[in-house]
Write a structure and sequence with these properties.
Number of helices: 14
Helix content: over 70%
CATH superfamily: MFS general substrate transporter like domains
Strand content: under 5%
Shape: globular
Largest sheet: none
CATH class: Mainly Alpha
Radius of gyration: 20 Å
Distance between the termini: 33 Å
CATH topology: Growth Hormone, Chain: A
Length: about 375
């Protein structure tokens, strides 16, 4: 996962370095995250039919090859926005397949009584790497440049090929499907389960708000660090490391809980963290000093990590193996795919209205959306039906 996020920050930094435009930084993030919207629900259906380990290994191999392709383009001086967009799309597609597989693999490694803990730790691994990886990548870019950073990232992909091959899965506890079963109907059936389960539906909606606004704004940190504060690649590494420190503390606090999920719905701390994360975006937009920007990035990293871990754990504990890959993939499509929407929209707004104004107003807008969502869901709350 560190390799995934280091690769992504390298791509974003190259886009900023080539163009100096927040829109192009957002565009590259859009292509990285677009497959989570367009392909991951189909991977979810597929992985409810097949064993996921081979899919995970192939996805890791493709991502390693694409990272090495960026290195080769660097060496041959053929880097351009168009070639980066293509590579980003391939990486995003492979990672969406890997994400779907991971959602299915983890609950089948451990015994049922420890599924909640395993899901929580898997979510923490993903979310912490999501924050720390770009921090490490930013520091490495400042030290050795993008060419050698992406080469090191390629090497980081390789250990997973070994560890994945050593994993032994428990037999799948689900209904058998015939090879002639309707693929699209299974996709619809999974979406129906997500809609009818009030807890899952609420997780998906609140995760979408978090992803589009908080994550979408964090995708523009290269533009903030260098475009607003003129801190260069070193500054990017510092601000991403600050967000990573917040993520680590948040993950540690979650791991320290006696209970890692909530049987009856989303933990109140997750909803509170969502509001804090949205406020941190607003504060980041108004930060008039580099130290204040680092502090708000720290707060945002802690808040958004807590939201993502609690939401993912809550969704997983509502599912059986029959629907796990399909429904969990729908949540993941929202969690990661929302970045695609948020990064490009916030990038465009930042070029038009300025990055400070964009962060300020989208943070306020997000808080209003959360309040409206809670009111509507409370009024229309219905019994669980699966």
């Amino acid at each position: 996962m560190l390799a995934v996020w280091i690769t992504r920050i390298v791509i974003s930094w190259i886009a900023w370095d080539l163009t100096g435009s927040s829109t192009y930084v957002g565009l590259l993030s859009f292509f990285l995250f677009l497959p989570y919207i367009t392909t991951i629900p189909f991977f979810g259906v597929l992985l409810d039919r097949i064993e996921p380990l081979r899919t995970a290994i192939l996805a890791q191999l493709i991502q390693a090859l694409m990272a090495f392709t960026i290195f080769l383009m660097h060496v041959t001086e053929t880097l351009s926005i168009s070639t980066l967009c293509f590579v980003a799309l391939v990486i995003g597609t492979a990672n969406s397949a890997h994400g779907s597989a991971r959602q299915t693999i983890v609950p089948r490694i451990v015994d049922k009584p420890t599924i909640a803990n395993a899901v929580a730790f898997n979510a923490m691994n993903f979310q912490v790497a999501r924050i720390i990886g770009p921090g490490i990548g930013g520091i490495m870019i400042g030290l050795v440049g993008t060419k050698y950073t992406i080469l090191i990232s390629t090497i980081f992909f390789l250990p997973a090929l070994i560890t994945l091959s050593l994993i032994k899965l428990a037999p799948k506890n689900s209904e058998k499907k015939s090879k002639d079963s309707n693929f699209l109907y299974e996709l619809y059936d999974g979406a129906k389960v997500a809609y009818k389960n009030f807890i899952i539906l609420e997780c998906i909606i609140l995760t979408l708000i978090s992803s589009v606004i908080i994550r979408g704004c964090h995708e523009l940190l290269p533009a903030l660090a260098d475009g607003k504060f003129n801190m260069g690649a070193e500054g990017l590494g510092n601000i991403m490391a600050s967000a990573g420190a917040g993520a680590l503390i948040s993950a540690f606090l979650i791991a320290s809980r006696k209970k890692t999920y909530n049987d009856n719905g989303i933990p109140w701390v997750a909803k509170g963290s969502l509001i804090i994360g949205l406020l941190s975006v607003t504060m980041l937009g108004q930060a008039d000093s580099w130290n204040m920007a680092l502090l708000t990035a720290f707060i945002g990293g802690a808040a958004v990590t807590n939201v993502a871990i609690d939401m993912q754990s809550t969704v997983q504990m509502q599912l059986t193996d029959t629907y796990r890959a399909r429904v969990a993939s729908l949540w993941l499509a929202t969690a990661i795919g929302g970045n695609a929407i948020g990064s490009i929209l916030n990038g465009i707004f930042s070029d038009i209205y300025g990055i400070s104004n964009t962060f300020f107003y989208v943070g306020i807008f997000g808080i209003i959306l959360v309040i409206i969502t809670q009111v509507i869901l409370t009024i229309n709350k219905r019994p669980l039906k699966i």
